[in-house]
Amino acid sequence: MATIQRTVSPGDSLCDPIPETVAAAQKAALDQVLGHLTATGINAQLIRRVAVQCATSPAPSAQSLWYPPQLVIYADKGRQIARISVGPRSGSYLVELVDDRPDRAGRVEVVRGTEAKRVAWLISRAAA
Fold first, then answer.
1. What pLDDT score does 5 carry?
2. I want to staple 66 with a disulfide (CB 3.0 to 4.6 A). Which of 7, 23, 39, 97 is the partner?
3. Domain residues for 80?
4. 45 within some domain
């Protein structure tokens, strides 16, 4: 059963950068959801952002880090209806459903990482 919370979603928020291997695992989980959404004709975009940190002391070095990937889902006219990310430790999906009515806040649901199809179902219900 998914946990439901009411919250206001403040647009794209960048979390702390994560190692490339963790970002790749999260991307793979989001790709599963993207496959389900594409099959049902829902418009979604997978967003990945790189964060490079360089150090000059004691010796020059650079480490490739990534911001956690997000899957952004749009309605037919380009209105954002949801944003999905993956929890760094739990691997659960964090589904933020956007409600753009002024008197209502969006809804956040946490879905187990093994239930990509349920995430797609939540999105298709929100898109209807």
1. 35
2. 23
3. 16-127
4. yes
Give a yes or no: residue 6 inside a domain.
Answer: no
| 58/11 Cα distance (integer angstroms) | 38
Domain membership of residue 4 (yes or no) is no
Phi, psi of 37 (to 5 degrees): -65, -40
Describe the chain by its helix, strand, coil percentages, rounded to 5.
Answer: 25, 40, 35
Looking at residue 64, its amino acid is S
* Domain contains 82: yes
State the average pLDDT over residues 54-66: 71
Q: How many domains are contained in the chain? A: 1
Phi (first) and psi of residue 87, to 5 degrees? -65, 135
Q: What is the pLDDT of residues 5-36, one digit of tens each?
A: 333 334 445 578 888 889 999 999 999 999 99
Measured in degrees and rounded to the nearest 5, phi and psi for residue 120 equal -60, -40
